[in-house]
Design a protein that fits this description.
heterodimer, A: mainly alpha, ABC transporter involved in vitamin B12 uptake, BtuC, two-stranded antiparallel ribbon, two-stranded antiparallel sheet, 15 helices, globular, B: alpha/beta, Rossmann fold, six-stranded mixed beta sheet, four-stranded antiparallel beta sheet
Chain lengths: 338, 235
C-alpha cells in the first residue's frame, strides 16, 4: 500500500493499529467499568509477559508466580504504610525481594525438572500465603491491607483518574515486553533456545545452563514483583488469599501465555485479551447458576488449546502465511500474463 | 601430552563413579575407552568437559588445569564433546545447529570455511542444510552432533558412543568419519561399546570396570588380550 510516498507494509500497519488500539482507552470514561477492564487486561498481559520470560524462554514451567507477585505487593505496600517510602521505590524493592526469593528457591528447585519444578513453585506460593496469614503483626494477616487513600500525587503512586493508572500499566507492559524481547533475541536468545531445545547439547556447546536459567528466572521474578506493586496501587486493597492465589494469579498467568503463545512476544497480550474479558463476562452473566461461568470459560479454553496447541498467535501466523502465498501466486500470475 | 588425567575421582553428589582413573591422550592421537554400561565411560568424558558435579584429581589439557573450571569455559580451550544419544537442537536447522557449536568462538573469522569443511565431510548435511535437525534420521543427527563439535575447531574431540543405536550401514559411515577426523590431526577420545570398532580406529585403549581402570595398552595388545576378547569382542 502506498500512501503519500510512504510505503506501508503489513508489518508496520499491524504495529500502527496496535498503537492506536492502546490509545483508544485514553478516551474512555475515566470512572467507567470498561477502562478498568482494559487496564486489567494490560496488567495481566504484563504479568503473563513476566511469566513468559522464564516459562516461555527458559522452559521452566512455574505454577507459583503469585509468590513473586505477592512479595512485590507486600514489600512496596508495607514500606509505604510503615515507612512512608514512595511505592515507586517500593516497586524496585519489591522486585529485588522477589528476585532474591527466586535465588534462594533455585538452590533446591533447579535440581527438579518439568512437572516437579511446577509443583515445587506451586508449593512455594502456597507457603508464602500461609506465612502472610499467620504473621499478622507484619502483614495484617488474613484481613488484608487497605492502602490509605491520601492526596493524589505522583510520588505516592496515587492518581485521581483511572486514565493515569492505565498509562502506568501500559508503560509497565512495555518495559516487561522490552526485557522479554531483549532476552529473546541476539546471543542470549540463542542461548535460551539451545537450553529449551536440548539442555545437554547446550551444555557441551559451552553454555552455562545453570547460570542462564537462574538469571532469567530472577529477571522474571523481579518483573513479576513490579507487577505486584502496580496491582496493589491500582486496587488499593489485597489480602493473602487473593494476592498469592493459585487459580487467580499463578495458573492464570501461565494459562494466558499458553492460550496466546508461549515464548512469543505478543502471546501474553493475545492471551490476556481473551482470558480476562471471558472471565469478566462469565462472572457478570452466568453467576445465577453456581459454577456455570467457570465451566463455560474452561470449555472455551480447552477448545482453544485443542484447536491451537501452540497458542492463538500461530493461527494469526497461518493466516498471514496464507495471505503471502496468495499474494505471491497472484503476482506470479500477473508476471506470467505479461 | 595434550590431555593428561591423573587420579581422577568423579561422580554425582554422594555417588562416586570414577576411582583414581589416569589416562593421557597425545596430540593427534586416537584413544578408546572400553567398558560395560555403568563402568563410568560417559562420566569420564563429562568430567573432562566439566559437567560432572564432583571432580577431584587432575585433568591437564594443553597447559590448563580443568578440574576446577566451569563447564562453559572448556569448549573455548579446544575440547569438542559429542554427548551420548545424539543430542541435537531439534527445532533448529542443520546449519543453525552447526553454528551453535561455534557459539563460544562466534567472533572467529574462519567459521564459514570450517562449516564448508564439515559439509564436505558429511555431504548429507549440505543436502539437508535448512531442514530441522529433529526431522533427520539417527545417523544424520549423529553427523550433526559431530559436525557441531567440530565447529569450535577442537584439538580434542570427545565422542560418546557415536555408533549407539545406529543401523550397521550407518555405523560404517560414522566410523569412516571418525577415521577422517583423526587423520585431519584432531585428537579423539572415543567411548564405545562396540569394542571391535573402537580398537580398529584407536592406537591405544583403556578398559574401565566399575569406575576403575583395569587394563591399558595399545589397541593391538588389547585386541589380543584374552579377557578383552571374551568380554568385549565376544570371541
Amino acid at each position: 500500500m502506498k500512501f503519500k510516498g510512504v510505503t506501508l507494509n503489513a508489518r508496520t500497519a499491524v504495529y500502527l493499529c496496535l498503537a492506536v488500539a492502546f490509545l483508544i482507552p485514553l478516551g474512555m470514561d475515566p470512572d467507567g467499568y470498561l477502562l478498568r477492564i482494559v487496564s486489567m487486561v494490560v496488567l495481566f498481559a504484563a504479568m503473563a509477559q513476566a511469566w513468559n520470560i522464564v516459562g516461555g524462554l527458559a522452559n521452566q514451567l512455574s505454577l507459583g508466580h503469585a509468590a513473586f507477585f505477592g512479595l512485590g505487593a507486600y514489600t512496596s505496600t508495607l514500606l509505604f504504610i510503615r515507612q512512608g517510602i514512595s511505592p515507586w521505590a517500593g516497586m524496585l524493592a519489591g522486585g529485588v525481594v522477589a528476585a532474591v526469593a527466586m535465588l534462594l528457591l533455585s538452590i533446591p528447585l533447579f535440581r527438579l525438572r518439568g512437572h516437579y519444578f511446577a509443583l515445587a513453585t506451586l508449593a512455594f506460593a502456597e507457603v508464602l500465603k500461609i506465612i502472610a496469614i499467620h504473621f499478622a503483626d507484619l502483614t495484617e494477616g488474613p484481613t488484608g491491607i487497605t492502602i490509605p487513600y491520601g492526596e493524589p500525587s505522583f510520588a505516592n503512586f496515587q492518581f485521581e483518574s483511572n486514565t493515569s493508572y492505565y498509562v502506568v500499566i501500559v508503560a509497565l507492559f512495555a518495559v516487561v515486553s522490552l526485557i522479554f524481547w531483549k532476552l529473546s533475541t541476539g546471543a542470549m536468545g540463542f542461548r535460551l533456545r539451545a537450553i529449551r531445545e536440548n539442555e545437554q547439547a547446550a551444555e557441551v556447546s559451552g553454555i552455562d545452563t545453570y547460570r542462564i536459567k537462574l538469571g532469567t528466572s530472577m529477571v522474571s521474578a523481579f518483573t513479576m514483583g513490579m507487577c505486584g506493586t502496580v496491582y496493589a496501587q491500582f486496587t488499593y486493597f489485597f489480602d493473602p488469599e487473593s494476592i498469592f492465589s493459585m487459580t487467580g494469579i499463578s495458573v492464570r498467568v501461565a494459562l494466558i501465555c499458553i492460550i496466546g503463545g508461549m515464548g512469543r512476544l505478543w502471546g501474553p497480550l493475545i492471551g490476556a485479551c481473551i482470558l480476562i474479558p471471558l472471565d469478566e463476562i462469565a462472572v457478570n452473566t452466568m453467576s445465577d447458576v453456581a459454577g456455570l461461568g467457570p465451566f463455560v470459560t474452561s470449555v472455551i479454553l480447552i477448545a482453544a488449546i485443542i484447536y491451537e496447541p501452540r497458542g492463538l498467535i500461530s493461527a494469526w501466523e497461518r493466516l498471514r502465511r496464507r495471505a503471502q502465498k496468495k499474494h505471491a501466486a497472484q503476482s506470479g500470475q500477473a508476471a506470467g500474463a505479461v | 601430552m595434550l590431555l593428561e588425567i591423573k587420579d581422577l575421582c568423579a561422580g554425582y553428589g554422594a555417588a562416586p563413579v570414577l576411582h583414581n582413573v589416569s589416562l593421557s591422550v597425545d596430540s593427534g592421537e586416537t584413544v578408546s575407552v572400553l567398558g560395560a554400561n555403568t563402568a563410568g565411560k560417559s562420566t569420564l568424558l563429562r568430567s573432562i568437559s566439566g559437567i560432572t558435579p564432583v571432580r577431584r584429581g587432575s585433568i591437564k589439557f594443553d597447559g590448563h588445569e580443568l578440574i576446577d573450571m566451569n563447564g562453559k569455559d572448556i569448549p573455548k580451550l579446544g575440547i569438542g564433546h559429542v554427548p551420548e544419544g545424539r543430542h541435537v537442537f531439534p527445532k533448529m536447522s542443520v546449519v543453525d545447529n552447526l553454528w551453535m557449536g561455534a557459539f563460544c568462538k562466534r567472533k572467529d573469522k574462519k567459521l564459514a570455511e570450517r562449516m564448508d569443511g564439515i559439509m564436505q565431510m558429511f555431504p548429507r548435511l549440505r543436502e539437508r542444510a535448512s531442514q530441522l535437525a529433529g526431522t533427520l534420521s539417527g545417523g544424520e543427527q549423529q553427523m550433526v552432533a559431530i559436525g557441531r563439535a567440530l565447529m569450535s575447531n577442537p584439538k580434542l574431540l570427545l565422542l560418546d558412543e557415536p555408533s549407539h543405536g545406529l543401523a550397521p550401514v550407518v555405523v560404517d559411515e560414522v566410523h569412516e568419519a571418525i577415521v577422517r577426523i583423526a587423520k585431519s590431526g584432531v585428537a579423539v577420545l572415543l567411548v564405545e561399546q562396540n569394542a571391535a570398532l573402537a580398537l580398529q580406529v584407536a592406537s591405544r585403549g583403556m578398559v574401565l570396570q566399575s569406575g576403575h581402570a583395569v587394563l591399558e595398552g595399545t589397541a593391538a595388545e588389547l585386541a589380543a588380550n584374552p579377557d578383552v576378547r571374551k568380554a568385549y569382542l565376544g570371541i
